[in-house]
Amino acid sequence: DAIASITVNNVAVASGTASGSIPLNVGDNTITTVVTEGLNTNTYSMTITRLAPALLTNLTVSPRVVLTTVSGADYKDYTSTVNNSVSSVMITPTAADPTATITVNNVAVVSGTPSGSIALNVGDNIITTVVTAQDGVTTKTYSIKVKRQTPAGLASLYDEKQTVPVTVNEVVVHQNVSPNGDGKSDYLQIDGISAYPDNTLQIMSRSGTLVYEVKGYDNTSKVFDGHSNTNGKLQLAGTYFYSLEYKDGNDTKHKTGYLVLKY
After folding, report:
1. What is the 3-state secondary structure (H, E, C) of 109-174?
2. pLDDT tens digit string along 10-64?
3. Which CATH class is domain 56-148?
4. Spatial CA neighbour of 89 closest among 147, 173, 174
5. b/e map of 62-80 (b: 16 or more CB within 10 Å)?
6. What are the residue ranges spanned by the domains of the chain?
7. What's the number of CA atoms in the CB half-sphere (13 Å) around residue 10?
8. How does pLDDT run across 75-111, given as a tens digit for each residue?
9. Rounded to two decimals, what is the model's pTM?
10. CA-to-CA separations, 90 to 65, 114, 193, 197, 199, in angstroms, rounded
């Protein structure tokens, strides 16, 4: 009716024309249209649901490193460089919306908590964090390229002109510990550690509690076999984190990562 008046959210609108822009909050938004003609009033309501975004409010790497934003194919691309002594990292993503889901390298991670330990090879390592919004369709991808540097003493080995073989005492921490008496992985095996007797090993639970600490770990008289040397108790099966520090000449080196204890 040409003489009827119309309001949309209490703002007058001419019949047949669009209202002004109406901002939408995340969640339900009610828009009310009232048509008045004389003493007669008709009210029309609609609810528009705006879904939460697939965004992060924070993204950190542990051990803490500086992330530099670079151009790339993903929503956000970062790059960083770590020393060769850093053999693994953990990623902590925090979502803008609590209903969003997150994966780091295709493994589910709870918002605001660290991922599992991610092993780093020498050179470039791509770590991908994907955030999926509440609708299960909308996604945003955050990519971090972590470059683990070549050991200083081995830099020349990566020169194609070098043909002389070099023997290196590489320290390798085996991740599986199964002290069940079968003679296989009954204790934490650290290859190459005998070449670095000036070392300190710490093992922590997932909650960060120190359960084992020793100087001079040697795979023989000083070993972790599932027992805590802080309280003497046999530890529960599960994932634990280690920190190994050792002297290599005048250099102090570190290795961090995780191990799995099972019986």
Report:
1. ECCCCCCCCEECCCEEEEEEEEEECCCCCCEEEEEEEEEECCCHHHHHHHCCCCCCCCCCCCCEEC
2. 999 999 899 999 998 877 899 999 999 988 999 999 999 887 788 999 999 999 8
3. mainly beta
4. 147
5. eeebebeeeeeeebbbbbb
6. 5-50, 56-148, 171-261
7. 1
8. 999 999 999 989 999 999 999 888 899 999 999 999 9
9. 0.47
10. 11, 6, 24, 28, 23
Q: Span 171-261: which CATH code?
A: 2.60.40
Burial class (CB in 10 A: 0-12, 13-18, 19+), 220: exposed
For 64, the 3-state DSSP assignment is coil
- 8 Å CB contact between 100 and 56: no
Residue 126 phi/psi, 5-degree rounding, is -100, 125
Q: How many CB atoms lie within 10 A of CB 26?
A: 14
Q: Which of 121, 117, 94, 87 is nearest to 105 (CA)?
A: 117
Evaluate whether 56-148 and 171-261 have a shared fold. Answer: yes
Rg (C-alpha) for the chain, rounded Å, is: 29
Strand partners, 33: 8, 44
